[in-house]
Amino acid sequence: FGARAMEASAHVNSLAARARILRALPGQLTPAKLADPASSLAAIRALDAFCLTAADAIDAHDAASRADRDAIEDGSEALDRFVAHVERACEPRGGGDLASRAAAATLLGRCARDCAPRRFVTSLARWGERLQGLVKPDKTADATVAAVAAARAMSEILRRAGAMMDVPGVRKEAATVVQRALPSILAWLDDEGSGRDAAAAALEFIEAALVGHPAALRPRADALERSLVRAAYSRGVFDTAVYSRGVFD
């Protein structure tokens, strides 16, 4: 017990600083600042993996003192508020334009990649739903940027879920994310005017689904095959996206 208490105490000292960062970020991540590439990049860089996991990974009963328990609870509450802020920023009612929603989608993908397993499992379905509206085909430049960010964030969700398929509920929720997003993903892939970034993001999503959730793709297997063949022959996108990593070898 003594060793665990010392370890927890060492972590909470760092956690207190992370909690302050998390509490400050929502005030800095207004729609206007999210739409500014420099501001949103600074926020993304401020979030290291420990910042997103520590509050959930340390149990209060492992704390060495009341002060440590308070720091743990403070960090967890700060993380709750930060994640809720990012979720709202992904939605139209969050008050931001497509550029700010794209940055929020990137932040949500970071949360999905690095948060503690318990938070991921309880948030998977909600995060997938938040990102769905951003991947709908739209040829405007801002919509393309938002769709690319959302597709990549969903790819993070699918990769994380693929490593947790033995956890009850994860398989079903991940399949729902795949099946609801796939029509839009294929539309981006089929549209030769959508640009290489959109095509590469679509292929990244398909890769994550093929590797971790192949059963979810079966209902649209024929459409998926046609889109991939068309992309391979008409757009040449495989050399920079999925094919270069050997997924289809």
Summarize the SSE layout with pairings.
Elements: H1 2-28, H2 31-35, H3 37-46, H4 49-57, H5 66-89, H6 98-114, H7 117-132, H8 141-162, H9 170-190, H10 196-212, H11 221-234
Shape: globular
Total helix count? 11
Category from helices, strands and their pairing: mainly alpha
Q: Biggest β-sheet, characterized?
A: none
Low-confidence stretches: 1-12, 240-249
Task: Give a quick summary of the entry.
By secondary structure, the protein is mainly α. It has eleven helices and no strands. α3 (37-46) packs parallel to α6.
Polypeptide structure, described:
By secondary structure, the protein is an all-alpha fold. It has 2 domains: 1-115, no CATH class; 116-249. The protein has 11 helices and no strands. It has helices at residues 2-28, 31-35, 37-46, 49-57, 66-89, 98-114, 117-132, 141-162, 170-190, 196-212, 221-234. Helix 8 (141-162) packs antiparallel against helix 9. The longest helix is centred in the N-terminal third of the chain and has 27 residues, at 2-28. The radius of gyration is 19 Å and the shape is globular. It starts with a helix and ends in a 15-residue tail after the last helix. Its main location: nucleus.
Note the main attributes of this structure.
single chain; mainly alpha; disordered N terminus
